[in-house]
Amino acid sequence: MLRHSGTQRCDICGQECSSVMTLKYHKAQHRKDDLTCSVCEKVFKRMINFKEHMASHTGDVLYSCDFCDKTFNSNANRASHRKKMHPREWLEDKMRKRGGGAAAATEVTDVQQG
């Protein structure tokens, strides 16, 4: 795989980015075709923000809780719900993703509840 080293500079605004991928993501933010809500005319640069916003108007469900039946139109709202309403499961999931496994999360939770 080809890798580029050093910083990359945006030819639009001059901002330095740490990698080619970071520069590509940054330049996507300069798009001329901003996304405009047809209901309230709010403008978005990122497609995911636009989709989540539109779901707030349409009532579409984009996300669901892994631990209960609650649904959300925003990933941030789902994350907040999981952390607040399912703290043990949230911590176990977080530890599992970090490589600590559910057993480590259980130990941490037991110590916290101690």
UniProtKB/TrEMBL annotation:
<dbReference type="InterPro" id="IPR013087">
    <property type="entry name" value="Znf_C2H2_type"/>
</dbReference>
<dbReference type="GO" id="GO:0000981">
    <property type="term" value="F:DNA-binding transcription factor activity, RNA polymerase II-specific"/>
</dbReference>
<dbReference type="Pfam" id="PF00096">
    <property type="entry name" value="zf-C2H2"/>
</dbReference>
<feature type="region of interest" description="Disordered">
    <location>
        <begin position="95"/>
        <end position="114"/>
    </location>
</feature>
<dbReference type="GO" id="GO:0005634">
    <property type="term" value="C:nucleus"/>
</dbReference>
<keyword id="KW-0862">Zinc</keyword>
<dbReference type="InterPro" id="IPR036236">
    <property type="entry name" value="Znf_C2H2_sf"/>
</dbReference>
<keyword id="KW-0479">Metal-binding</keyword>
<feature type="domain" description="C2H2-type">
    <location>
        <begin position="35"/>
        <end position="62"/>
    </location>
</feature>
<keyword id="KW-0863">Zinc-finger</keyword>
<keyword id="KW-0539">Nucleus</keyword>
<keyword id="KW-0677">Repeat</keyword>
<protein>
    <submittedName>
        <fullName>Transcription factor grauzone</fullName>
    </submittedName>
</protein>
<feature type="domain" description="C2H2-type">
    <location>
        <begin position="63"/>
        <end position="91"/>
    </location>
</feature>
<dbReference type="GO" id="GO:0008270">
    <property type="term" value="F:zinc ion binding"/>
</dbReference>
